[in-house]
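S1.2 Input.
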Amino acid sequence: MIRSVYREASAIGACADGKIRRLQTMYLSGSSLASEARATLARLRRPGHVSRWMVEGAVLMDDLPDLGLSARGEERMITAIRVALELYAWHQQSRVVPMAFVPEQGDRRRSFGHSCRLVEPDLDDATGIRRKLAAVESAAGLSEMEHQLRGLITLMRGKNVQVDYRTLAADLYLLQGEKTREGVFMRWSRDYYSAPHDQEKQDE
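S1.3 Output.
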């Protein structure tokens, strides 16, 4: 059962990653597609907009993976992808460099914990980061988590720290399951407390 959940998470992460990569390519293209991407990202930054599901259906619902999920599983999948897209929209706002991590050949995937460490590598100066991560972990549900994650994303945007949205979207799916939630935070903690240069050695 657990193995199938992780396969589902991987497929969901890949789906969200494809959507975000397309938006990022359009946004940074300098072509007429850039204005279309800017408009889409602006709408995604208004999650309370009454027409969200109809207006954003094209970017959110297109090419969803068919995983044979239950109705509850489908809801969790769509929620994970939606939150990943909304967080990316905040992350990329007004930046002229790519905020979504796109690995090159040989690069390892990155967890959200790894990105958080890059905001302030010196742990003595990073109490604010850890406080925000603790708030994410203690959040009652994904909606509250999203609010806390947005604060961390804002800090990352200010320092041009990228996020691996493929991994994050998969984790957002797993965070909605009681049996898989703890494993996500354990992995984020491990990667956060690993020194950045140690992670670079692992990448090599």
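S1.4 Remarks. The two ends are 33 Å apart (CA to CA).
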